[in-house]
Amino acid sequence: MSDLPLIQADRAVAPPAATTSTGGRRRRLRLLSRTDRVVITLMVLVPLLLVTGFVWLPAAATVLLSGTNWDGIGPLNEIEFVGARNYSDVVNIYPPFVPAVQHNLLWLAALFVVATPFGMFLAVLLDKELRGSRFYQTALYLPVVLSLALIGFVWQLLYSRDQGLINAVFGSSIDWYGDSNVNIWAVMVASGWRHVGYIMLLYLAGLKGVDPSLREAAAVDGASESRAFFRVVFPVMRPINIIVLVVTVIESLRAFDLVWVVNKGRNGLELISALVTQNVVGEASRIGFGSALATIMLVVSLVFITIYLATVMRENRE
Q1: How far is the C-alpha of 34 from the C-alpha of 27, rounded, in Å?
Q2: Full residue range of the structural domain in which residue 181 is found
Q3: Element (H, E) at 57
């Protein structure tokens, strides 16, 4: 009996020494075969080349061309650099620019104040696992799958002055797409119809990830359902809220397909994205001027994207 502790001591194995993350990474790389390394390299390299070729290089070329007066016809070595003159012309002597900025801000306000809260409200309802919730999720998300151009054609059946459903039901003769006083509101309704389904899906995914014990604790403390949502659940979904904010801003900036289908972004539907297309591929073919407009959109988008990335990286460090 006296030898038992000695035997157990001899059999005891010392805990393995902690390996550094670098050493563990090198060991895993040594375990990979040559084929695995080639596959991993291609999986990283091919998307990187595609993003660089189709996103970053065109974006850099747009910024460079925004300082020229190139019309897209002459050779590249004859391009004349004009500095910030295009930006000055956009702000000072280009009449559609101010209405376009106003319409983009109005578009952002409509999506942020109306469509986004409504999408969140639908997500809260569907999170309760109501009867037929799968059907409602599919029906509400269906517009997101459709392109904005197709949505424009669908709503044209509703907004048509002579044969549209809305005028037929209410006995009116409003030219929803032709009247410059109402067409921006009509188009925003069509855009919001699509945006609601997107926001609903994002918040529904966020609600599924909330710890149920938080709601139970709030209920035990006597908080009402709405109070528990805004005081407990909503702050927990901070990453989703930031994603929704970024998505909403980008959607308001890149709103193009819908207004282009209606009237090519004219007569009350001026948007910055439509002005870019009119100057780059339109009859004027002012590549430098259109690039200046596109660069303005890029800078505004990067502000919110940077905020989102900074928030995500901060949370990962924590």
Answers
A1: 14
A2: 102-271
A3: helix 57-65
